[in-house]
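Slack export, channel: ligand-projects

TW: morning all. Re-posting the request from yesterday since it got buried. We need the structure predicted with the small molecule present, not the apo form. The ligand is S-adenosylmethionine; the SMILES is in the block with the sequence. No rush, but it would help planning for next week.
GE: picking it up
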Amino acid sequence: MAKFRFIDLFAGVGGFHIAMSKLGGECVFASEIDPYAIETYRQNFGIDSECDIRKVHEADIPAHDVLCAGFPCQAFSKAGKQEGFDDTRGTLFFEIKRILKYHKPKYIVLENVRNLASHDGGRTWRVIAENLRGLGYIITEKPLIVSPHQVGVPQLRERVYIMGVHSAQTQTQSLHFEVPHPHRNQTDGRQILNGSADPRYRITEYEEFVLNAWDEFIKGVNRKNLGFPIWATEFGKDYDTSLFPAWKANFIQKNRELYFQNRKHIDKWLRKYNGLSDFVPTHTKFEWQAAENIGSVWEGIIQFRPSGIRVKRPTEFPALVAMVHIPIIGWEKRRLTPREVANLQSFPNHYIINSNQQQAYKQFGNSVNVRVVEYLTRQLFEQA
Ligand SMILES: C[S@@+](CC[C@H](N)C(=O)[O-])C[C@H]1O[C@@H](n2cnc3c(N)ncnc32)[C@H](O)[C@@H]1O
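GE: finished. pasting the full C-alpha cell output, ligand included:
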C-alpha cells in the first residue's frame, strides 16, 4: 500500500508502530498510560502517547486508514446480551469499537493473547467477531493464531491476530492468510544473540552449582524417556498416592520408576549433593524438554520457573512474558540482555531501549513481535 495513516492504541513501546512504518505508515495518534512505556515511545518516535484512551473523545482522534491495538483480554458481561445492552461496554475493546464506529478506518490490526480464542468458552472471541462484523469489517472466520517461530524468529509465542478490512472499501468478500506450518526446531536461538561479558547477566554461583548437579543427573539416565517433570523428593519414597489427583499420582509413579531403573546412579548423585539439602525446594524439580537433541544442560535454554528448572533445546526461546524468568543461554551461562530480548521481538538495532533494565524486560515481554505484524499486514494490504 502507498503512504497511509495509522493510530496506535495501547501503544506500549511501539511494536505496531515499527511494523506500520516499515510498510509506509505515518502514526497520527498513539495512546498509552504506563509512564515508562510513554517515555520509551517518545524517545524512539518523538510522539507523546500519554493519554488514557477511555478519556479521549473519538472526534479528537485524527482520521486514519489503519487502527492498530494490542488490547488487554477481558471477559464481557454475560447479562449484556439478553438485556439488549452493549455487552462490550466497560471493557477496553469497547474503546476500540467506538473509535471504529466513528472513523471507519479501512483496516484493523489487533493482537491479543492466545487465550482469547478459548476465553470464556469461546464467547469472548464470538463477541469481538460479531461486533467487528456488525461495524462492517470482514475478518477471518476463526482467530488467526501465529507465533514468531513460524516466520523465522526463534521465539515460541502464540498470539491471536485479528486482521480486518471494511466491506465498504474493498471488493474482497473474505480474508485468507498464509502462515507457515508451526513446525518447531527450524529456527536457531543463536540468531538473536549479541554476546555479553557484562557480569549483570551472568548466572549466580548457586545457579551454576544447581545446574551442574542436574547436568550430572541427566547424563546418567536415558534422556529420551524424561518427558515428565522430575521431582527429586520422590526418589526412593513409597507412600500411598491414591488420594492425589490422577495427574499427580502418575508423575510420582513415573519418578519412582525412574529411580528404580537408575538406582545406582541416582543414589550416588543424591549422596554427592547431600540429598539436595542445599537446593531451594523448587530447584529439586526439573523438566528436560530436549529429549536426545542435546546431551547437556549447558547446551540448552534454561529457565528457573516457580514449577522448577526447565531446559529446552536451543532452537527457540520460550515466550517472553512478565520477564521474571528471563531465559538463560546455557552455553554462555548468562541471561538474555535487554537488547537480545528486543531482537526476539524483532525490534531494530537502532531502537532506544529504556535505561531502566527491569522496565525494558517488561516492555518487550508485553510488546508485539514486529515481524509477525509486518508479515500479516502485508498480506492484508495485498488482498483487500
Ligand atoms: C499488551 S500491551 C501492548 C503493547 C504494544 N502492542 C507494544 O508493542 O509494545 C497493552 C498496553 O495497554 C496499555 N493500556 C492499558 N489500559 C490503557 C488505557 N486505558 N489507555 C491507554 N493504554 C492503556 C498498558 O499500559 C499496556 O502497555
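GE: first-pass observations. The chain has a mean pLDDT of 94. DSSP finds eleven helices and 15 strands in the chain.
TW: perfect, thank you
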